[in-house]
Design a protein that fits this description.
This protein is an alpha+beta fold. The chain is built from 13 helices and 23 strands. The structure holds uridine-diphosphate-N-acetylglucosamine (UD1) and phosphoenolpyruvate. The site of phosphoenolpyruvate has 8 residues, from α12. Keywords: Cell cycle, Cell division, Cell shape, Cell wall biogenesis/degradation, Cytoplasm, Peptidoglycan synthesis, Pyruvate, Transferase.
């Protein structure tokens, strides 16, 4: 079987989604209210952090998405007992049996998520060794792990690459280090945090990523007993401690999901109240949303995103690390930009191959050209390197229904939006991939009044 189809089925079935395809009758505005839970990009890391505690942790607002299921499976293989708490979306993670678990089944869970790499530090602290199977995640570029491995070597880990994955050991323990990242990688920053908190001595990380999800992970680690200082200019200092306890924490809301539904409201001429969304973590998105012609109202319990009428306007966006315009926001927004009057440019500077999803939009009638030149304010790491990383979107275009296949998580959500705005019927297949990061997206579409049928 084709791996993409296989992946889509696995992700879908992990959350009880038994359909592969949705047939959508487009042209109906999405209207109504949906509720967010915790961020995929925080919750999965918070689950790993529980391994570091001497006592159980309680994580609230955990979404029912397949990446959470995968991390849960990995934790259980490592001896962490994971059970449901009293409230919906609450997980209790008890790491007391990690030392006695055996690691024979580990590659049963390989290949579906990028999180296994973050088990290294916690397992090295608890067991003195770790084995990391091949990593999954969205195919949006090469996604190397060189920064992670270099960071772990700096802490004193011995890294051995095997055909089946990577084996690590720390025969003399892990020691605080001065670490500098060549690019503010989210994952590598988390690697440093999860390793440094129990390492012997002080760690100074420069070139750190400072995404809100990382700040929330720091909140969690501090609750556990860690000492972490966030300085100006992307410097984070961690004073290693001897032991950490479990935590109780309500996860930060999923700002990527919020931005996706906001884009859906705009593209479909709709009006969606996204319960749980907050302004502070979405400032950059909200500015762009307003410049395109979208409107929003910030309430205590969420944000209402709507199309206020009138023409949408083109924008020039450059994706970037926080506090820039997040790379995971561009795909859903590009669909709305196909309706803007004029030429928009999206310069993708975080991942080198994140425009695979536009082919389907072009088949549906969008006018989008992708270029290898840097068409943003400045050159990025991908300039002069043959990566098609700048998109020029000329609008407005009328999209027509088509048969389209979901290529990755955010590209998949943008395909759903495209089908919802298009004239006529579209069939979107491999929708299981969307379950990696969007909880109950089918139910939410129903709540918002979308006209669709599910196909097995
Ligand atoms: C599960 C999770 O939280 N995923 C998010 C995380 O991914 P992830 O943590 O994988 O992304 P990174 O921030 O690490 O990647 C950013 C850039 O650094 C490069 N790089 C990274 C590590 C490394 O060892 N070597 C290297 O070259 C990557 O190829 C990429 O070009 O941040 C991305 C950027 O905000 C988001 O799009 C993802 O949704
Ligand atoms: C790229 C993404 O996730 P991951 O890093 O898990 O593949 C995403 O959330 O859009």
């Amino acid at each position: 079987m084709n791996t993409l189809v296989d992946d889509a089925k696995q992700h879908g079935s992990a959350v009880g989604l038994s359909v592969d395809r949705i047939t959508i009758n487009g042209g109906k505005p999405l209207r109504g209210r949906i509720e967010l839970k915790g961020a995929k990009n925080l919750v999965t890391k918070a689950m790993v952090a529980a391994i570091l505690g001497d006592t159980p942790s309680v994580l609230k607002d955990v979404p029912n998405i397949s990446d959470v299921r995968i991390v849960r499976g990995l934790l259980e293989v490592h001896g962490v007992t994971v059970s449901a708490g009293a409230e919906e979306g609450e997980l209790i993670l008890d790491p007391s049996a990690v030392e006695t678990a055996h690691m024979a089944d580990i590659d049963a869970h390989a290949g579906s998520s990028r999180i296994p790499i973050l088990f290294c530090g916690p397992l090295l602290h608890r067991l003195g060794e770790a084995f990391i199977p091949d990593l999954g995640g969205c195919r949006i570029g090469d996604r190397p792990i060189d920064y992670h491995l270099e960071v772990l070597r700096n802490f004193g880990a011995i890294v051995e690459k095997l055909p089946s994955g990577i084996r690590m050991s720390a025969p003399t323990g892990l020691h605080g280090a001065k670490v500098s990242l060549p690019y503010p990688s989210v994952g590598a920053t988390e690697q440093v945090l999860l390793t440094a908190v129990l390492a012997d001595g002080i760690t100074e990380l420069s070139g750190a990523a400072i995404e809100p999800e990382i700040m929330d992970l720091i909140n969690i680690l501090q609750k556990m007993g860690a000492i972490i200082t966030v300085d100006t200019d992307r410097v984070i200092r961690i004073e290693g401690v001897d032991k950490l306890d479990g935590y109780t924490h309500r996860a930060l809301f999923d700002r990527n999901e919020a931005a996706s539904w906001a884009a859906a409201a705009l593209a479909t001429d709709g009006d969606i109240f996204v319960g749980g969304a907050r302004q502070a973590e979405m400032l950059t998105f909200l500015n762009v949303f307003r410049k395109v012609g979208g409107a929003f109202e910030i309430e205590e319990d969420g944000i209402r995103f709507f199309h206020p009428g009138g023409e949408l306007k083109p924008v020039i966006i450059e994706t970037d690390v926080h506090p820039g315009f997040m790379t995971d926001w561009q795909q859903p927004l590009v669909v709305a930009l196909t309706k803007a009057h004029g030429v928009s440019i999206v310069h993708e500077t975080v991942y080198e191959q994140r425009f695979g999803f536009v082919d389907a939009l072009v088949d549906m009638g969008a006018s989008i050209d992708v270029h290898k030149e840097c068409l943003g304010a400045g050159a990025c790491r991908f300039g002069q390197r043959n990566f098609q990383h700048s998109a020029v979107i000329s609008g407005p275009s009328k999209l027509s229904g088509a048969d389209i296949e979901v290529p990755d998580l955010r590209g998949g959500f943008s395909h759903l939006i495209a089908a919802l705005t298009a004239e006529g019927r579209s069939t979107v297949s491999n929708v299981g991939i969307i379950a990696r990061g969007y909880e109950n997206f089918i139910t939410k579409l129903e709540l918002l009044g979308a006209d669709f049928e599910l196909e097995a």
